[in-house]
Write a structure and sequence with these properties.
There is one protein chain. With 470 residues, the protein is an alpha/beta fold. The chain is 46% helix and 15% strand. The chain folds into two domains: 147 residues, Rossmann fold (3-Layer(aba) Sandwich); 243 residues, 3-Layer(aba) Sandwich (Rossmann fold). A seven-stranded mixed sheet has the order 9-8-7-6-10-11-12, sandwiched between helices. Strands 1-2-4-3-5 form a five-stranded mixed sheet. α3 links the parallel β3 and β4. The longest helix has 26 residues. The protein is globular. The two termini are 38 Å apart.
């Protein structure tokens, strides 16, 4: 139907808005915008004593850099338009944070809650074998990762299937990321997207001119934060803000939302939900029956961390937040963007803000290709050097350092330390690159457009320098 919302069209609209601020001709821009390869699959799997035909997709949006990279989601809402849009966002996301991948995305149109683990394994393995047949997976071609409805378990099945179909491939572990640590995963991956959301918003909140314009104080401490979605990304985003001194005043899930002006204990809410099956009726909090109304709570920072298209032209005028951090993919429609530009609300866009996952996936891919754990070569060396320096310092001062302070001074970085440090560096640099672009061109009205300009310039330059256009 012509009146239906198209996620890919929304991404394309944001692209077109930014394209006029770049130097590239129409043909180059069209090549950047379109999806290079689209794979539609219908394959049979025996579920119980019946054959079920499973519908699935894998889209490679851009081949300006290889491999392509993007998650696989299991949801009965999966459709080609959504997968194409998410693949496009992956291209721009990787470009912004300087991760050398083209964008991709995959999806299987099932509700995983309706299947046993055994059935899900059969579906995942068959999907992987189809990707292998079509050369839509491989360490140098296309590297999937977890997304909505998938996790470490599914990535293990993908790796095992790929390795079985490619015997002797020494880099097989790099065909997929988001794996368990025992299967070549990297420490810090689970909380990476939420931590990246925190680092990105925190960096924006450090900018005096931006905070002054919004009428907010510098820093995240004391700011009122509402988070929609308590999945992996939403939980870790809320947790890191809470630890930094922000007040988590509202939390929303599909069953409803809760509010407390004095702040909510995130871990206590999660425990309450495990025990009761709902976040509602949390002690000391006010229930909000309609979950979407939490988006309209009075707060400083709103973090939609669930699914796309939750803030649109209809409800955007009622949103009171001064900063919106898009932890989910595509939570705002272009119509909502227009409303917030007029209202002076700062939208920190998904294509950069939730890039923590792909950044740490890049670190995992590099780890798999190098066949060595981060920190293994230098952790002990660093600790020995620190010990010598500390001994000399103690001799010079005549004072001994004890307890936790001594442990901190001696500590050499392990894998998780290095991964988080690399993620922090990535998000800080990306934030300043986008802001510099925005400040350099007063005609750019919002941060999303500035982000697209940065991404288009990088992808377009890659196409030009590689001589891809004959």
């Amino acid at each position: 139907m012509s009146g239906e919302y198209s996620f890919f069209d929304a991404v394309s609209k944001s692209f077109d808005r930014a394209a006029r601020f770049t130097k590239f001709d129409g043909g180059t821009l069209e090549q950047i915008k379109q999806c290079n390869s689209v794979l539609r699959l219908n394959f049979p799997v025996k579920i119980g004593d019946k054959i079920q035909v499973i519908k699935a997709y894998r889209v490679q949006h851009s081949h300006h850099k290889l491999p392509c990279k993007g998650g696989i989601r299991f949801s009965d809402m999966v459709n080609l338009d959504e997968v194409m849009a998410l693949a496009a966002l992956m291209t721009y996301k990787c470009a912004i944070v300087n991760v050398p991948f083209g964008g991709a995305k995959g999806g299987i149109a099932i509700n995983p809650r309706n299947y046993t683990a055994y059935d899900l394994e059969k579906i995942t393995r068959r999907y992987t074998s189809e990707l292998v047949k079509k050369r839509f997976i491989g360490p140098g071609e296309d590297v999937p990762a977890p997304d909505y409805g998938t996790g470490e378990r599914e990535m293990s099945w993908i790796l095992d299937t790929y390795a079985a179909l490619n015997p002797g491939e020494v880099d097989a572990a790099a065909c997929v990321t988001g794996k368990p640590i025992t299967q070549g995963g990297v420490r810090g991956r689970r909380e990476a997207t939420g931590l990246g959301v925190f680092y990105g918003i925190r960096e924006v909140c450090k900018m005096e001119n931006v905070m002054k314009k919004l009428g907010l104080s510098i820093g995240v401490e004391g700011k009122r934060v509402v988070v929609q979605g308590l999945g992996n990304v939403g939980y870790h985003s809320a947790k890191f803000f809470e630890e930094a001194g922000a007040l988590i005043t509202g939390l929303a899930e599909y069953e409803g939302a809760i509010f407390n002006a004095n702040g909510l204990d995130v871990d206590a809410v999660v425990l309450h939900r495990k025990q009761t099956g709902s976040i509602l009726n949390f002690p000391g909090a006010t229930n909000i029956t309609n979950s979407s109304e939490a988006l309209e709570l009075d707060c400083d920072i709103l973090i939609p961390a669930a699914l796309e298209n939750v803030i649109n032209g209809e409800n955007a005028p009622r949103v009171k937040a001064k900063i919106i951090g898009e932890a989910a993919n595509g939570p705002l429609t272009p119509e909502a963007d227009d409303v917030f530009i007029e209202k002076g609300v700062l939208v920190i866009p998904d294509m950069y803000l939730n890039a923590g996952g792909v950044t740490v996936s890049y670190f995992e891919w590099l780890k798999n290709l190098s066949h060595v754990r981060y920190g293994r070569l230098d952790k002990r060396f660093t600790e020995n050097q620190n010990a010598k320096l500390l001994e000399q310092l103690e001799e010079l001062t005549g004072k001994k350092v004890h307890g936790t302070q001594r442990e901190l001074m001696l500590h050499g970085p392990d894998e998780e330390d290095l991964v988080k440090s690399g993620l922090e560096e990535t998000m800080i640099n990306a934030t300043h690159e986008i802001m510099d672009c925005w400040n350099a061109n007063p005609e750019i009205r919002d941060m999303r457009t500035a982000s697209f300009v940065v991404a288009i310039n990088k992808v377009g330059t890659s196409y030009s320098e590689l001589g891809i256009f004959p």
